[in-house]
């Protein structure tokens, strides 16, 4: 028995919890201090740039912000690293209600449109960032239309394939030094002969009018935090070398995920993390592979991604695995993979298209 007056030892359960709580608070305090330092430095630089009463003029334009808010630079979100900055804009996933309620006809049109856009990107050598942005914008735009809908057919008033290429035009202006030529996009639309997938012959004016309608519908706001924003940063944190087969496999899975409309309901950072996890499991962690014995989702990955392993093992990873197994199998696939098969079977892409994922 313990002596009278001696302190009762803390239980093994509560002590780590308390320590963890203090550590978490200390880390949060340190992070807050870093952010505040960045904010104040930026505020001082901004004051120097404006000078001569310019800061007062800016404040007059935004009367809702106090003097303290301006001094701390709270008018613009500040982040200690690039990943939290991008994650703050990772908010363009569509609702589960939309995925379930948009209708099978629209999903078929969408699958065809994404496949044709992928084919067009390969033929015009469009950057992967522009392709991912185009598809994300397509989904964001259609979701906006659905929220304003009167009935299910409203999503088909404007041909989804033409909408897809108009989104690619917008994305190329954002991501490329030189946007893709409108004439080439019009040719890609008009070469489609599939029954019902093209409603008429399109002109450059038609495509530009679609571009205007899309931008007005989304309020000129582009969902620029796509899977490409996160993929390479997450891959490096997971020990995946840039330019390697396992790195290519990450982008193969991410491009494959574009074809399945169910992935439009996930945050881009979650899908990117799932692809990195699966690439590590397939190429790095099995017996005889470089990182055999390492945990599938390390503390470094948790820190960098802000995503815990438990969150990954939800529907996202499971669905990505099922999608990989259905690749190139029309009887199992819920989407179209023609353009992906043509691209990812080439030697320049490690022939990944011929690898079956298990």
TrEMBL record:
Alphabetized CDD domains for the sequence: CYCLIN_CCNO-like_rpt2
Annotated spans, Disordered: 1-31
Domain Cyclin-like: 115-216, 229-322
UniProt keyword Manganese present: no
Gene3D superfamilies the record matches: Cyclin-like (1.10.472.10)
InterPro entries hit by this protein: Cyclin, Cyclin-like_dom, Cyclin-like_sf, Cyclin_C-dom, Cyclin_N
Annotated Pfam families: Cyclin_C, Cyclin_N
Keyword DNA damage among record annotations: no
Biological process, per Gene Ontology: cell division; mitotic cell cycle phase transition
Domain Cyclin C-terminal stretches: 225-358
Molecular function via GO: cyclin-dependent protein serine/threonine kinase regulator activity
Record keywords, A-Z: Cyclin
The family this protein is said to belong to: Belongs to the cyclin family.
Listed name of the protein: Cyclin N-terminal domain-containing protein
Source organism of the structure: Vitrella brassicaformis (strain CCMP3155)
């Amino acid at each position: 028995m313990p002596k009278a007056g001696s302190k009762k030892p803390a239980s093994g359960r509560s002590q780590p919890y308390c320590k963890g709580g203090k550590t978490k608070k200390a880390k949060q305090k340190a992070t807050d201090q870093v952010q505040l330092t960045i904010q104040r430095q930026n505020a001082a630089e901004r004051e120097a740039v404006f000078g001569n009463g310019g800061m007062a003029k800016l404040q007059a334009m935004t009367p809702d912000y106090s003097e303290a808010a301006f001094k701390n630079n709270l008018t613009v979100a500040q982040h200690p690293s690039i990943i939290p900055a991008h994650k703050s804009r990772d908010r363009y996933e569509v609702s589960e209600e939309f995925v379930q309620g948009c209708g099978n006809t629209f999903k078929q049109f969408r699958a065809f449109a994404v496949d044709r856009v992928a084919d067009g990107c390969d033929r015009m050598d469009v950057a992967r960032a522009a392709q991912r942005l185009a598809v994300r914008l397509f989904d964001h735009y259609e979701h906006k239309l659905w929220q304003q809908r009167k009935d299910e057919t409203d999503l088909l008033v404007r041909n989804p394939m033409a909408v897809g290429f108009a989104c690619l035009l917008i994305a190329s202006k954002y991501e490329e030094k030189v946007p893709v030529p409108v004439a080439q996009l019009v040719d890609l639309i008009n070469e489609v002969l599939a029954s019902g997938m093209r409603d008429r012959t399109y002109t450059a004016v038609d495509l530009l009018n679609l571009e205007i309608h899309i931008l007005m519908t989304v309020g000129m706001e582009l969902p620029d935090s796509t899977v490409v924003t996160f993929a390479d940063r997450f891959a490096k944190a997971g020990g995946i070398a840039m330019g390697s087969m396992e790195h290519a496999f990450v982008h193969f899975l991410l491009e494959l995920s574009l074809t399945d409309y169910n992935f439009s309901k996930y945050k881009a950072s979650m899908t990117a993390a799932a692809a990195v996890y699966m690439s590590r499991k397939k190429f790095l962690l099995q017996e005889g592979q470089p990182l055999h014995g390492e945990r599938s989702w390390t503390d470094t990955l948790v820190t960098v991604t802000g995503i815990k392993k438990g969150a990954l093992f939800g529907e996202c990873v499971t669905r990505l695995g099922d999608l990989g197994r259905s690749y190139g199998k029309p009887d199992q696939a819920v989407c179209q993979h023609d353009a992906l098969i043509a691209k990812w079977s080439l030697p320049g892409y490690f022939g990944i298209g011929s690898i079956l994922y298990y």
